[in-house]
Amino acid sequence: MDIKIICVGKIKEKFYIDEIDKLTAEIRKKNNFSIVQLPDVPIPKKSNSSIDEKIKEQEGNKVLEVIKDKDYVIGLCIDGKEIKTVQHKAVLDKAYINGYKQIVYVIGGSLGTSNRLRERMNYKLSFSKMTLPHQLMRVVLFEEISRVV
To answer: Is the pTM of this model over 0.90?
Structure first.
């Protein structure tokens, strides 16, 4: 199975980078695995909802440029479905059975994802109703992927 992670923003802390590198090596033992890290759009200090929406659109458009028509897209969304690991594996298996060759996970920027990007998602996944740092979510996602593939 081909798996791609598309994420907005950059990991800065070495302990996150080290853990992601370790998990990446583990996942690559069994799968084609790639990571696309896109730059985030700076949020101005005097932002408002209109500016925030424009930023989400800009970041979302960058993400959509990397997604192919035949990709199965799983977006990490706070309002997504909370599932167990065994159910996550079933989602991947079903996508593969339905002919999808690549699973793409999307972690949006700190403001979330654009409506257009959300419409493209085949599945919306939530790890928690809490807001968690995106850098930590990458580690959690990579750990979860290493368990289901």
So the answer is: yes
